[in-house]
Amino acid sequence: MIDPSFSSNSRLPEELGQALDIIRPVLQQDGGDIELVEWTDNRCARVRLTGRCKGCPHAQKTLRNVVRRTLFKLVPDLLRVEHVE
User: What pTM does this model have?
Assistant: First the structure.
């Protein structure tokens, strides 16, 4: 769920939340999850992997192949995705 304090004139935060809701079940199958930490003015989504995904040796692969690909496909105005611990 997106923090309501994220404000923007665009629909990007809402679209990000919907895209993360699509990604979430994939991560939850392995005991993980994802959260939107911050939405920046330069159209960057900062996300955090949680649960079993946090610190997993495959986390970077998951970010690249699942998270980033899906977010860029479903949120075309998104410019960058960053992972934060």
Answer: 0.80
